[in-house]
Amino acid sequence: MLILADLEATRGAQQVQDHAPTWFVIWSLRHRRFEAWNSTPGQCHIVYAPSATALWDLMQQVERTSPPASGATDPPEPRPSQPEENRS
């Protein structure tokens, strides 16, 4: 049975989702908690929280402490070419 609190929680999850495009955010009716999965390539982070605010805080913490996604860094500097040996 869906109750008013679940409708409000679903709206809260949607608000968090609107501000976090690299995350998939839901209100889990089964577990009665907010859940978010990071959808950045090369990373897999899942966070759970009892409130939308707590979920947002955890998501921000993950983003601050996670290394950049693979491929998100600058490519390595090219190595200087070796001078050719003189051939006589």
Brief characterization of the structure:
34% of the residues lie in helices and 18% in strands. It is α+β, with helices and mostly antiparallel strands.
Q: Return the string of H and E elements.
A: HEEEH
Low-confidence stretches: none
Q: Going across the biggest sheet, name each strand in turn.
A: 1-2-3
Total helical segments: 2
> By helix and strand content, what is the structural category?
alpha+beta
Mean pLDDT: 84
What kind of assembly state do the chains in view correspond to? single chain
Shape: elongated
Instruction: Give the number of DSSP strands.
Output: 3
Alpha-carbon distance between the two ends: 89 Å
Instruction: Please state roughly what percent of the residues sit in beta strands, choosing from under 5%, 5-15%, 15-25%, 25-35%, 35-45% or over 45%.
Output: 15-25%
The total domain count is 1
Radius of gyration, taken over Cα atoms and rounded to an integer in Å: 22 Å
Main sheet attributes: strand count, strand direction, barrel closure? 3 strands, antiparallel
Fraction of residues in helices? 25-40%
